[in-house]
Write a structure and sequence with these properties.
- This protein is mainly alpha-helical and 494 residues long.
- It has 29 helices and no strands.
- The longest helix is centred in the first third of the chain and has 17 residues.
- The protein is elongated, with a radius of gyration of 33 Å.
């Protein structure tokens, strides 16, 4: 039998593998093409054939063989084989776009979203450092993050845009990242994204978003103090600051922070408001008296705020008598000394922003799927786009969020608010009237929608209708500011 085998003619397969062992690449190529047709599923034949082509300087032909084979494996859903083949192609030619696109599509099919993004991100920097055009990679990145939302993707894409000095788009992506991080309750990363956005452009709306995050991220007193000082002339912002800390039950913590403020006007303004919120009326009045010595305008602003928020103290507050003379210099100096005797200095800039935490690809893949399933990505996008003034995109995403029952009220407020801000008052009106009797809404939620309906009517110039809806809302909400609005409109309409 052995003698017969010795003189038997070798099969094509045997000749092919003998040629591989002998490094006879010409024979490997000569036999390889026919064998691929004969054995279309053989990975070893395709690999050996393509390797031989490369050895003979036929790199493009080798890549074509590998890509055609890979596309067939993808159709057959042999994704692991496809990944291995595509990685091989990219080792042969790191700039092969077709291979890159196929690899991303396979990762998405396997729900390996982090791997897909990381592959695109690495490709971008590879193209950039090689001096090649990055426009195609950027388009792939944009399409990917729009389809598979995750805050890390937006944040890292913002880094790319920032490196290209595309500040406006970088800012937008940082804001989107921050809003998505909030929905994942990852407040540390949300703060990081918002602070990076603030390095590009500072807005009051962004500062408010940072406040909303920082109350959940303990240990960032530097951020709160910097926001206070940067908005020291914006009394609406200072009022918002108090309301945010009150909502989360951290007014006492804020009170301690204010001790580190050396500006007496701001210190007394905030201290007075905090004391009133805590029910310490005498302490609040004492701080008001000190503020009156320093800045009459700030005092009058505070007086208006306190009178509005705490109508029960109106008799005490109205004891105020107009002064025709300045207070004694000794009194002013004493107040100033009390204010500026502070050992801690507020830094002129935020502390260094933390680097990215080490990514956990499995967690990110899971979060991408969850953001899709629970509608968080739509509500986050809507909130971010509204903050950026991109009303059409905000409306589009708010409408998608309406489809999720647990987001219905939040999406309704967002949609109506955006329509109102865009000037589509009739559309906002029709929408609010249409959903007011929805069973899924609580009485408190209905009251808030009625209040918003009143605002729409007021913007339309129909104050009588606005008054009706404000009164309806007040039956449930009992907000002092809303009562003042009602009193004001009643005077006008009468």
């Amino acid at each position: 039998m052995g003698l017969f085998d010795r003189f038997r003619k070798k099969t094509e397969e045997e000749e092919f593998f003998y040629a591989i062992e002998s490094k006879d690449y010409v024979t490997v190529v000569k036999l390889g093409k026919a064998l691929i047709s004969k054995h279309p599923n053989s990975v070893s034949i395709v690999n050996s054939y393509s390797d031989a082509l490369i050895k003979l300087g036929k790199k493009k032909e080798a890549i074509e063989v590998l890509l055609n084979f890979t596309e067939e494996k993808i159709r057959e859903e042999y994704f692991d084989v496809a990944v291995a083949m595509l990685k091989k192609v990219l080792r042969i030619d790191p700039f092969e776009i077709r291979a890159l696109k196929l690899l991303i599509s396979v990762y998405r099919k396997k729900e390996l979203f982090y791997e897909a993004f990381k592959t695109l991100e690495e490709a971008y920097w590879r193209f950039l450092y090689a001096g090649k055009s990055t426009s195609t990679i950027k388009s792939l990145l944009e399409n990917f993050i729009e389809g598979e939302l995750h805050p890390l993707f937006f944040e890292k894409f913002a880094e790319i845009l920032k490196a290209e000095e595309n500040s406006e788009d970088a800012y937008t992506n940082y804001i989107l990242a921050g809003n998505l991080y909030i929905n994942l309750k990852n407040y540390k990363s949300a703060l990081r994204a918002f602070l990076k956005a603030r390095e590009i452009k500072r807005t009051t709306n962004l500062d408010r978003q940072i406040l909303d995050v920082v109350v959940n991220e303990d240990g960032r007193k530097d951020v709160v103090l910097k926001l206070i000082m940067d908005n020291s002339s914006d009394f609406d912002f200072l009022k918002y600051l108090i309301s945010v800390f009150k909502t989360v039950g951290k007014l006492s913590f804020l009170k301690q922070m204010i001790e580190n403020i050396s500006d007496p006007k701001i210190k007394f303004f905030l201290s007075a408001m905090i004391e009133f919120e805590l029910g310490e009326v005498e302490n609040g009045l004492e701080f008001m008296e000190k503020l009156k010595f320093l800045d009459k305008e700030a005092y009058n602003k505070l007086l208006a705020v306190v009178s509005l928020k705490y109508p029960g103290y109106s008799d005490i507050l109205k004891v105020e008598v107009e002064e025709t003379t300045l207070p004694d210099p000794e009194d002013i100096l004493e107040v100033l000394e009390q204010a500026i005797d502070v050992p801690v200095e507020i830094q002129s800039s935020f502390k260094e922003i933390e680097d990215f935490e080490e990514e956990k690809s499995k967690d990110i893949d899971k979060e991408v799927k969850n953001l899709e399933l629970d509608g968080s990505k739509y509500i986050s996008m809507a909130e971010a786009m509204l903050g950026l003034g991109q009303f059409d995109k905000a409306i589009e995403n708010a409408r998608k969020a309406l489809m999720y029952e647990d987001l219905f009220f939040r999406a309704s407020i967002l949609l109506a608010t955006t329509l109102k801000m865009k000037g589509n008052l009739r559309e906002a009106l029709d929408f609010l009237v249409d959903i007011l009797n929805t069973e899924k809404l609580t009485e408190d939620e209905k009251a808030k929608l009625k209040k918003l309906l009143g605002e729409v009517y007021e913007d339309m110039g129909n104050e009588e209708r606005a008054l009706i809806w404000y009164k309806e809302a007040y039956k449930t909400l009992r907000e002092p500011e809303l009562k003042c609005k009602i009193d004001e409109l009643e005077k006008k309409t009468s």
